[in-house]
C-alpha cells in the first residue's frame, strides 16, 4: 500500500494550485490560509478549509468534482514541476515481478488525482489501483488502509499481510491501527527519527537501495 506524495513522487505544488483555484471558483471566497496537507486525507483537509473560510454551503463531494477538473487541466505540469523520488522505478519493478505481491495505493488523494499524478510519471501500470484506499473513502487515514485491504481480499479471494509505506506519521499510525507492517521513508518533511518514534517497523532514508527496500517490504 503505497502512499503517493513524497513517497513515490512530489507533484511540485500543481495539485495545491488546482485546489485553491477550485475553491475560489466554487465558493467565491478569496483563499486565506493553506493548511498542512502532509499525510492527511483530502476529505479531512476539505472539511478544515471550509471551516476556516466560513463555508457552510458546500460538501467535499461537490468540491472534488471541480478540483479534479482543475487538476486534469494542469496535468501536464506534474512532469515539469514535480519529480519521482529516488529509486522508485526500480523498487516498483522488482516488486512487480514478485507473484506473491499486489501493489496498490493508499493515499489521501481523490482517485482521479492519484491517477493523474501517476500517469504523469509513467507509473500507472505498476499498481492495482482498483483495490486502493483513497481520500474520498473517509477523513481518517486508518480507514483507507482498511478499505484497501477489504477491496484486495474481495477481489483476489485471499488473505493478505498488508504493508504500508509512507513518509508521514499519519501513514505509520494508519498502518499500525490495522495491524499492517509500517515502513517509513524520510523523503518528505518528517525525519527518520520521528517516523521511528511514531512506531514504524522499519524506516528508510529513501528508496535508492533497491535490495534493502525490497527486502524490508517483503519481510
Ligand atoms: Mg505522503
TrEMBL record:
Transmembrane segments: none annotated. PANTHER family: PHOSPHOGLYCOLATE PHOSPHATASE. It comes from the Bacteria. This is Haloacid dehalogenase. Pfam families: HAD (PF12710). InterPro entries: HAD-like_hydrolase_sf, HAD-like_sf, HAD_sf, PGP-like_dom2.
Amino acid at each position: 500500500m503505497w502512499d503517493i506524495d513524497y513517497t513515490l513522487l512530489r507533484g511540485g505544488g500543481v495539485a495545491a494550485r488546482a485546489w485553491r483555484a477550485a475553491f475560489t471558483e466554487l465558493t467565491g471566497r478569496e483563499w486565506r490560509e493553506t493548511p498542512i496537507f502532509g499525510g492527511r486525507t483530502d476529505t479531512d483537509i476539505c472539511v478544515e478549509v471550509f471551516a476556516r473560510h466560513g463555508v457552510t454551503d458546500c460538501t467535499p463531494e461537490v468540491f472534488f468534482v471541480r478540483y479534479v477538473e482543475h487538476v486534469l487541466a494542469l496535468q501536464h505540469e506534474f512532469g515539469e514541476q514535480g519529480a519521482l523520488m529516488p529509486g522508485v522505478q526500480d523498487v516498483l519493478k522488482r516488486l512487480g515481478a514478485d507473484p506473491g505481491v499486489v501493489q496498490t495505493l493508499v493515499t489521501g488523494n481523490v482517485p482521479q488525482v492519484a491517477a493523474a499524478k501517476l500517469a504523469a510519471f509513467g507509473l500507472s501500470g505498476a499498481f492495482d489501483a482498483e483495490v486502493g484506499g483513497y481520500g474520498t473513502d473517509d477523513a481518517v487515514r486508518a480507514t483507507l488502509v482498511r478499505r484497501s485491504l477489504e477491496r484486495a481480499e474481495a477481489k483476489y479471494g485471499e488473505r493478505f499481510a498488508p504493508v504500508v509505506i509512507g513518509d508521514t506519521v499519519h501513514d505509520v499510525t494508519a498502518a499500525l491501527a490495522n495491524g499492517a507492517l509500517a515502513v517509513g521513508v524520510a523523503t518528505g518533511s518528517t525525519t527518520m527519527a520521528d517516523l521511528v518514534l511514531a512506531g514504524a517497523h522499519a524506516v528508510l532514508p529513501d528508496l535508492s537501495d533497491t535490495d534493502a527496500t525490497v527486502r524490508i517490504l517483503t519481510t
